[in-house]
């Protein structure tokens, strides 16, 4: 009996890896075809990506990018585990980063007080912004997809309104860039200088902690179990005593709080201010990464790293005379393939397990029956 | 059955129709070969008329107009189905809907009919009518495959019986020479299980008291519908209260109100002296309410989660599943092993998903889970529905065992034999009201059936009923 359990587990693991692998391979094939169609050599392009992507300065760049992407992936994955599609991660993190940057610029306290305050402020802002969608869903039945998309636009408008000279923004010396008041040097997050390779953002530590926390809360706590239950079957959750509405609102708020952290690596480690060129659209990247990582903490990390790698290396391809749109093609194909591959693999796995269980039980049942028949003869 | 209808592909073996070997890739193939299926859960659209329901998906055959209507009339008259094509489906009762389903299959030219547990939702009088229809079909040269676990019905309607147990044919029988008992032994592989309780264990300590329970629901058109009206009853320790009724007369809502999934508009629910009328579901469960839901896939299981996670479901705040706010996965796994062992859940392990178990084994797992937390009250809604005979007997045993231990049991079932056999007290529910009560020791399924259709109310007396 134990043997079979192990076998099924091993197979499940294999199936788990098969899907993203399948997706990446399919993406490679499609990309090859696309590059071929543009009359260039795909082999050269791939080898350039690998050599350039494994250079030490690229590694640091990828890790820094992945830190941001990881947080975005976790924020989206939290919603996914609940069957909630939090498209609003984008608006949540931008608004959170903006408010936190304003607060950070205004604070004159020592760094060890300021940094946690800035992070808390960002999480609170993200949570509040997500809470609007959560409350609308549980009280009025508004689809979170619709409300969060609209909240994204509203966040954009609010930031554009407040980020003006004379309001919360200021013009830099060159007169081209509007930004919030820069953070004092004491409020910079620690970073690791790796010499010529560049500077590794210290915020990667926070990202790891968030990942561990995500795994622990979902897999090991009562709250996490309730959350997963609602995600798997709302009716069973209600019958088992989970307050479904409360859970929906709560998880939306947590997703928003994590989303609030997305802008923090950039703000605390890099830009130190919120300007109108602050990275946008990372919320949507998070959706792709959460899908790719199967909502699994390690899977999301791999997805985030892959995304960083692709971005870094395709940027470089542009200098080699390839079209920069290759990046979009690869990313798009990967996401598409991932969604299809997961569903195919999931159905296959479920069917296979049913067959196995059936076969096992039939074998168990057959053993005594045969004996009986022999006796009967 | 699913294979016969092309919904699943066989690993081995052949199907021969009219001497010709065939393979079905989907239900359309099966229909093309003249095989039609009447599902246990009807596949009909409420907001369409009978005519529209019948032609839906088969528009090419006779169009959607007068030609189709004529054809429906013709089939209906030929087999005595009494179907009126222009009535809205929502106005029809269960038995009429079933006839529409049968007609739908015949309309598509079926020569072989598969009926999956067709009598589960019918009262005895309706069952007789259905059997008359089936005999009519037979007389016209059609083949009927009648799947049921009700032995009496099989014996009365079938010309040939094949018994399947755990996925294998265990034998065939001739209904003219076989008794119910022999058939049952063939099905179970051992002696006959009957849902009969032993001596009464009813005490005079009330455990669950429901008073004046009322629940109204506003439907999509804004019309308020009374789902539960002035429901009052008391269940004592060691008592099984059975509620009979055709499905959809408020039984599900009653259970949900007692479980706290629906909030009643009026009325008081008292569990062991504590008012729980508006308490959240989790508190009720912690207070000792065990729940075997009527639809285990929707309310009782996480189908894609492993068995041990399903063991936690509903009892996540209780030991051994958790300590403080943390899950104790090791203890939960160990206890799942225990349940699998003690309740004879046939599974290769506790890491397989709940979806891969058969209905009977899923149900045994649920019963085991609910009984593992020392409940005071057990709510069992259709506990043996869709469950093989072996598991059925086991579940009956567990309910009897619960009663012996002094639990109060609320039993809701469409299986009248089960209700009469297990209950100490019987109530009949009709249109959201408890309209009649009966003594399970003397009542017959037919008498109960007439109350279920609203034909009889008050206290049902066996002998007197016959004379009236």
UniProtKB/TrEMBL annotation, chain A:
Keywords: Cell membrane, Membrane, Transmembrane, Transmembrane helix. It is found in: Cell membrane. It is a multi-pass membrane protein. CDD domains: TM_PBP1_transp_TpRbsC_like. The chain crosses the membrane at residues 12-38, 58-80, 92-109, 115-136, 145-163, 198-218, 248-268, 326-345. It comes from the Bacteria. This is ABC transporter permease.
């Amino acid at each position: 009996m134990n043997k079979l359990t192990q076998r099924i587990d091993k197979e499940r693991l294999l199936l788990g890896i098969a899907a993203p692998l399948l997706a990446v391979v399919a993406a490679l094939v499609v990309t090859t075809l696309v590059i071929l169609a543009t009359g260039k050599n795909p082999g050269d392009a791939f080898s350039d990506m690998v050599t350039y992507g494994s250079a030490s300065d690229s590694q640091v760049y990828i890790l820094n990018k992945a830190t941001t992407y990881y947080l975005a992936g976790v924020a989206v994955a939290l919603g996914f585990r609940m069957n909630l599609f939090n498209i609003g991660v984008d608006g949540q993190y931008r608004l959170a980063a903006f408010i936190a940057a304003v607060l950070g610029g205004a604070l004159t306290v020592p760094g060890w007080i300021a940094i946690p305050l800035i992070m808390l402020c960002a999480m609170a802002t993200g949570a509040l912004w997500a809470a609007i969608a959560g409350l609308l869903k549980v009280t009025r039945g508004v689809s979170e997809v619709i409300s969060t998309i609209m909240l994204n636009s509203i966040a954009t408008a609010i930031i554009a309104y407040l980020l003006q000279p004379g309001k919360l923004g200021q013009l830099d010396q060159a007169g081209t860039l509007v930004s919030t008041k820069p953070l004092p040097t004491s409020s910079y997050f620690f970073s690791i200088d790796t010499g010529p390779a560049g500077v590794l953002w210290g915020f990667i530590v926070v990202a790891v902690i968030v990942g561990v926390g995500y795994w622990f809360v979902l897999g090991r706590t009562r709250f996490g179990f309730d959350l997963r239950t609602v995600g798997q079957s709302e009716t069973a959750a209600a019958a088992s005593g989970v307050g479904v509405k409360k859970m929906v609102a709560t998880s939306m708020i947590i997703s928003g709080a994590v989303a609030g952290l997305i802008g923090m690596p950039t703000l605390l480690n890099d830009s130190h201010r919120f300007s109108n060129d602050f990275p946008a659209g990372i919320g949507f990247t998070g959706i792709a990464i959460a899908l790719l990582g199967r909502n699994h903490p390690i899977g999301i990390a791999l997805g985030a790293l892959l995304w960083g790698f692709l971005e870094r290396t395709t940027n470089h391809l542009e200098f080699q005379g390839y079209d920069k749109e290759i990046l979009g093609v690869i990313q798009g194909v990967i996401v598409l393939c991932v969604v299809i591959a997961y569903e195919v693999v999931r159905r296959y796995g479920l069917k296979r397990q049913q067959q196995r269980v059936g076969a096992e039980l039939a074998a168990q049942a057959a053993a005594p029956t045969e004996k009986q028949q022999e006796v009967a003869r | 059955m699913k294979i016969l209808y092309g919904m699943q592909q066989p690993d081995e073996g052949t199907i021969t129709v009219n001497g010709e070997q065939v393979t079905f890739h989907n239900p359309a193939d099966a229909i093309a070969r003249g095989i039609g299926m009447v599902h246990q859960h009807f596949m009909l659209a409420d907001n369409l008329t009978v005519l529209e329901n019948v032609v839906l998906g088969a528009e090419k055959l006779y169009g959607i107009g007068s030609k189709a209507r004529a054809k429906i009339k013709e089939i209906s008259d030929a087999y005595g189905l009494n179907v009126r094509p222009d009535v809205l489906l929502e106005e029809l009762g269960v038995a009429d809907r079933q006839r529409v389903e049968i007609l739908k299959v015949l309309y598509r030219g079926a020569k072989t009919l598969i009926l999956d547990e067709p009598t589960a939702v019918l009262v005895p009088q309706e069952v007789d009518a259905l059997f008359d229809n089936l005999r009519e079909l037979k007389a016209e040269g059609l083949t009927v495959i009648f799947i049921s676990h009700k032995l009496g019905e099989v014996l009365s309607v079938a010309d040939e019986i094949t018994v399947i147990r755990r996925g294998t044919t265990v034998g065939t029988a001739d209904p003219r020479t076989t008794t119910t008992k022999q058939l049952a032994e063939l099905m179970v592989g051992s002696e006959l299980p009957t849902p009969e309780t032993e001596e009464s264990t009813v005490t005079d300590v009330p455990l669950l008291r429901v008073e004046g329970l009322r629940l109204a629901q506003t439907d999509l058109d804004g019309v308020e519908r009374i789902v539960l009206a002035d429901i009052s009853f008391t269940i004592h320790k060691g008592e099984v209260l059975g509620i009979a009724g055709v499905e959809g007369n408020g039984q599900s809502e009653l259970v949900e109100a007692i479980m706290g999934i629906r909030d009643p508009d009026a009325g008081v629910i008292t569990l062991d002296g504590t008012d729980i009328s508006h308490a959240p579901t989790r508190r009720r469960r912690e207070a000792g309410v065990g729940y075997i839901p009527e639809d285990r896939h929707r309310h009782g299981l996480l189908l894609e989660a492993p068995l041990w996670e399903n063991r936690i479901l509903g009892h996540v705040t209780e030991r051994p599943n958790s300590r403080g706010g943390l899950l104790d996965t090791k203890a939960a796994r160990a206890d799942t092993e225990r349940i699998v062992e003690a309740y004879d859940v046939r599974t290769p392990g506790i890491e397989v998903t709940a979806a891969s178990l058969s209905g009977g084994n899923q149900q045994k797992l649920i019963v085991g889970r609910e009984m593992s937390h020392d409940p005071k009250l057990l709510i069992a809604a259709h506990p043996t529905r869709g469950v093989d005979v072996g598991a059925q007997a086991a579940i009956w045993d567990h309910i009897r065992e619960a009663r012996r231990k002094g639990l109060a049991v609320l039993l809701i079932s469409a299986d009248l034999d089960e209700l009469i056999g297990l209950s100490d007290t019987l109530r009949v529910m009709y249109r959201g009201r408890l309209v009649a009560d009966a003594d399970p020791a003397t009542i017959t399924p037919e008498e109960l059936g007439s109350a279920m259709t609203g034909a009889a109310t008050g206290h049902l007396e066996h002998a007197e009923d016959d004379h009236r």
